[in-house]
Design brief:
Length: 281
């Protein structure tokens, strides 16, 4: 277990991380709490496979009781990377929407607060956005808050500009919001470092701060505007102080900030130590 001061830093600023659930979903909360995380992200099934055995009721109950035991305030499921809700290929679109609906029902069984999904890709951006909106409009009742993640802009991915993300979530279902990945925002051009306030103004005027429910707190290996999605340890990348701006921001204080940095759990302590050294400056 790491130092008490780093654990309380994570609690105070609502910082969490992506946690391995090797050995069973019920292992997630205890692992998260070793870092003092009040929140964490995990995969509810193998993220590289289309299908997985249905979730057992006992599995969900065991998970929920551990969340309660470790006083975890919110959890986030990250949906499978295979899902492409923007696809023009009917077969891939069908598989994607089935897998997405399965992610929603698993998240609901687990009582997860959030389910984050990538928008997908399509060379025809308008067509792609329409497809995602159709998929979102056909989601039945759900308890989990579905979050669309902004993208770095590699290839034909949709959801790179904040305007595009706001068009995707412009559906009648109000339990749909946004998760902003700081590395992706930076790679797609937004300057969190030298023009932080401008970034927040764009975020508020497009998506609206009230519809941004969480962040993925990642530094970037590549320069701003590179459109390349390569995460870096906090403080070791090109955004550096931009992340400290965001962590310090009172307006975002209660929103979960989940680290998805290289080496995962093995380096979270180092990230927290870096934040601690900078936050008071
Ligand atoms: Zn993601
Ligand atoms: Zn990324």
């Amino acid at each position: 277990m790491i130092d008490e001061d780093l654990r309380s830093l994570a609690k105070k600023y609502v910082i969490g991380g992506h946690i391995s659930v090797a050995g069973g979903l019920h292992n997630g909360p205890a692992r998260a709490s070793e870092f003092g995380f009040p929140t964490f992200q995990f995969f509810s099934k193998n993220q590289m496979r289309w299908s997985s055995p249905p979730m057992k009721e006992e599995e969900a109950i065991a998970f929920k009781s551990e969340v309660y035991k470790y006083a975890i305030k919110s959890t986030m499921v990250h949906a499978s990377y295979l899902i492409n809700l923007a696809s023009a290929d009917p077969e891939l679109f069908r598989k994607s929407s089935d897998a997405f609906y399965d992610e929603i029902s698993r998240s609901d069984m687990l009582g997860s607060t959030f389910l984050t999904v990538h928008p997908g890709s399509n060379p025809d951006r308008k067509g792609g956005i329409d497809r995602i909106r159709n998929a979102l409009s056909s989601v039945g009742n759900h308890d989990v808050m579905i979050l669309i993640e902004n993208t770095a802009g590699q290839g034909n991915v949709i959801g790179t500009g904040l305007e595009e993300v706001s068009r995707i979530i412009d559906v009648s279902d109000k339990r749909i919001g946004v998760c902003i990945d700081t590395c992706h925002a930076w790679a797609s051009s937004y300057d969190l470092k030298d023009s932080y306030e401008e970034f927040i103004i764009s975020l508020d005027s497009t998506i609206g701060l009230d519809r941004v429910f969480a962040f993925h707190l990642n530094d970037a290996k590549r320069e701003r505007g590179s459109r390349i999605d390569r995460h870096e340890l906090i403080g070791k990348g090109t955004i550096d102080g931009g992340l400290i701006n965001l962590i310090r921001d009172e307006r975002l204080r209660e929103k979960p900030k989940i680290m998805e940095t290289p080496f995962g759990e093995a380096r979270f302590e180092e990230n927290l130590r870096y934040i601690q050294s900078k936050i008071g400056e």
